[in-house]
Amino acid sequence: MDRKQNIAIFTTASLPWMTGTAVNPLFRAAYLAKDGKRKITLVIPWLSLKDQELVYPSNITFSSPSEQEKYVLQWLEERTGFKSSFDIRFYPGKFAIDKRSILAVGDISEIIPDEEADIAVLEEPEHLTWFHHGKRWKTKFRLVIGIVHTNYLEYVKREKNGRLQAFLLKYMNNWVVGIYCHKVIRLSGATQDYPNSIICNVHGVNPKFLEIGKKKIEQQRSGNQAFIKGAYYIGKMVWNKGYKELLTLLQDHQTELDGLELDLYGTGEDSNEVHEAAKKLKIVVRVHPGRDHC
Q1: Could you count the other beta carbons within 10 Å of the beta carbon of residue 204?
Q2: What is the spatial distance between Cα 121 and Cα 235, in angstroms, rounded to a whole number?
Q3: Mean pLDDT for the stretch of residues 23-48
Q4: Among 44, 34, 33, 110, which Cα is nearest to 71's?
Q5: Rounded Cα gap, residues 160 and 109, in angstroms
Q6: What is d(CA 282, CA 259) in angstroms, rounded to the nearest whole number?
Q7: How many whole angstroms separate alpha carbon 242 and alpha carbon 170?
Q8: Are 47 and 103 in contact (CB under 8 A)?
């Protein structure tokens, strides 16, 4: 092996959309490339200006892929503290309003030349292959690893005829993931179960969180209060991220939870409704816009 191993990471979203499949694969690419032993390529969607306006927050838009790439790498450097050495390539994507998701247009496996097709990491393999047509991923790459982020079955159950749709989607997901992936990794047990899959947090832990943990230990050892009697909840502020279930539980158990203070952090289409629902509770629930987890 005279040349470096090539790893291509394909994902379903990109900054400035602050969603898990935009952020976590970006960190994955940065840290895999950090020691210089592998050639890493991150493959992300490029949206039309019209779709950018629908997806990206704070009226942020880009006139060219290179402009977006510069934004992404600058954001990453501010959070990691080092310059990243991986490549970014774009595939054509289209935002599906009904699904609130970006879908690939065409055969995105062609982004990577055949001579570089060693390992492919498909972030949300079912999402990336629902409409895939072209060369089979297992034929193109020597190894294809699917990383399952999202339980799409739970999302679908909330729609009209949701139970039937979820039943059909379960078998479709099993089919496409089985066809296109050699190995399937589920980030948690809350995701759809796939045959021969394993559960593993391959995201790892951001070093900033470890530093925060060390500071909390020092506070405890010195006799200071490290944690208040409260809780926080982080997620895009749309009902299907669990806010409805959370607020229902809080309402049903307000008496037992007397004295609890809860902070919600998120930005999304349902922010105003979540804010109004939280006001009706007797316990203290503060609603904040989304922010960096650290």
Answers
A1: 10
A2: 24
A3: 96
A4: 44
A5: 34
A6: 10
A7: 20
A8: no
Q: Is residue 115 a contact partner of residue 140, using CB atoms and an 8 Å limit? A: no
Q: What is the pLDDT of residues 102-154, one digit of tens each?
A: 999 999 999 999 999 999 999 999 999 999 888 899 999 999 999 999 999 98
Contacts of 155 (CB under 8 A, 6+ apart): 240
Q: 285: which strand partners? A: 262
The pLDDT assigned to 2 comes to 63
Q: Is the pTM of this model over 0.70?
A: yes
Structure tokens at 26: 């970006």
- Residue 205's contacts (CB-CB under 8 Å, 6 or more residues apart) are none
Radius of gyration of the chain (CA): 21
In the sheet with 5-10, reading across from the earlier edge strand, the strands are 101-104, 87-96, 38-46, 5-10, 119-123, 143-148, 183-186, 198-199
> What is the b/e burial string over 256-275, where b = at least 16 CB atoms within 10 angstroms of the residue's CB?
ebeeeebebbbebebbeebe
- CB 5 within 8 Å of CB 118: yes
Per DSSP, the three-state class of 167 is helix
Q: Is 189 helix (H, G, I), strand (E, B) or coil?
A: coil
Q: Show the tokens assigned to 281.
A: 């509770």
Query: Is 122 in contact with 10 (CB distance < 8 Å)?
Result: yes
Residue 50 to residue 66: CA distance in whole angstroms: 18
Give the span between the Cα atoms of 64 and 278, in whole angstroms: 41
Whether the Cβ atoms of residue 184 and residue 197 lie closer than 8 Å to each other: yes
Residue with tokens 């059909």: 168
Nearest to 233 by CA among 287, 161, 184: 287
- First and final CA of the chain: distance in angstroms? 40
- Segment holding 183, helix H or strand E: strand 183-186
Could you tell me if 73 and 80 are in contact, meaning their C-beta atoms sit under 8 angstroms apart?
no
